[in-house]
Amino acid sequence: MAENDNNQNQKTIIKDPKTWILTIVVLLVVVLAGWWWLYPRHASLFTSKVEAYQYPEYISLGSNYVFTIPKSLNVYDRAVPGIQILYAGDLTTKTLDEAYQHGGIAVRPISGLTDHSASAFKKYVNDTYVPDLKKNLATDVSAQFDTNNGSDVAQVTVKKNGQQLRFIYLKNGQHPAEVVAKDETDAVKKVEQTLVDVEASDIKAEVAPISQAISNIALLIKNQKGSNLYKISSADLRSKISEAGLIDALKAAEPYTSQPSQITINGMGYDGKINEFTVVMTFDPPATGDKPASGVLYIDKIDGQWQLKNIKLPSIAEPVKAN
User: Fold this and answer.
1) Residues forming a β-bridge with 268
2) Mean pLDDT, rounded, of the chain
3) Residue 220: CB atoms within 10 Å
């Protein structure tokens, strides 16, 4: 009976399994209309420390693309919904414009491009994207078209008073995406060269099973099923904590895990060998005025199965250090 109830819970959450979107987690992927986040008119975007991925590779679950994290940069995917910000050190800037000025890079899905043909992509860039930049950012905008990794791409440069203001790399494909920075640095080029659709990546075969494993774990956390969670954990985790200790840890986290918004997961960091993933979970504050909380799941592939290797349950957000 318990198994049937668990299956029923998952069925009510999975709307389209083919999209590989996690069950139980609510993916906050807000694709913002226009290019609102490109401009420097927004203050106080980053009001507290946020979790950072420091693994070599990153996959955006909601947007279904993968890219390599350039050396010395971290990925923050909680500061602005739907955007991954690559930044050296702690993300302490107040606006995206400030982040760009300090060498920051933003990666996000492209909205409004449903026809993925080469002609439609070029028309979109020339007739929609560039005019919008001229209207909202600066009038000196140029675009060049090329191909990369089998996808149609465009490189857009924005200048103001002769000074470089933005460099934007747009990738067409099954999941169109853009990379935004002040200049095309070596780090930006690294992201350009490695930004691919999930279906074209070396991780394509693992997205569904790893997503399902994370979904199951999140469901157990949400439902305070400490004994069940302990059973599906790796021997490494069981050597570090007892079943009773894990149950107590879940109870201590209940003010966060019981929130109606459930658990938010935007993406995963992994080591490039596709055998260990780091997953940052976000929890809404339990009460007005409380600070947001976060947790981390470390998932390992052991004997062909994805298992929970380690877990960090909700605590006040602070940067994640990779093990």
Assistant:
1) 59, 279
2) 80
3) 21
Percent of the chain's residues with pLDDT above 70: 79
CATH architecture of 2-17+205-316: Roll (3.10)
Report the distance separating Cα 54 and Cα 22, nearest Å. Answer: 22
User: Do residues 265 and 22 touch, judged by C-beta distance below 8 A?
Assistant: yes
- Count helices and strands (H / E) in the chain: 9, 14
- CATH number (3.90.1150.10, 3.30.70.260, 3.40.630.30, 3.40.1000.10) of 31-200 reads 3.40.1000.10
| Cα separations in angstroms, 28 against 81, 88, 176, 180 | 6, 24, 18, 20
Measured CA to CA in angstroms, residue 139 lies from 130, 133, 154, 263 at distances of 9, 7, 18, 42
Strand partners, 305: 302
* Residue 213 to residue 7: CA distance in whole angstroms: 14
Torsional sign, CA 307, 311, 314, 316: negative
pLDDT (0 to 100) of residue 157 = 98
Sequence-separated (6 or more) residues with CB below 8 Å from residue 198: 20, 59, 64, 65, 66, 175, 204, 207
DSSP single-letter state for residue 34: T
The helix/strand/coil state of 213 is helix
- pTM of the complete model beyond 0.85: no
Best CA proximity match to 157, nearest among 172, 144, 176: 144
In the chain, DSSP assigns E strands to 57-60, 65-68, 74-76, 84-87, 105-109, 140-148, 151-160, 163-171, 177-181, 196-197, 267-270, 276-283, 293-302, 305-316
* Weakest-pLDDT range from 102-116, 200-214, 223-237, 255-269: 255-269
CB proximity list for 120: less than 8 A, separation 6 or greater: 113
Q: What's residue 315's pLDDT?
A: 54
Domain boundary assignment for the chain: 2-17+205-316, 31-200
Longest dimension (CA), the chain: 69
Name the pLDDT band for 264 (thresholds 50, 70, 90): confident
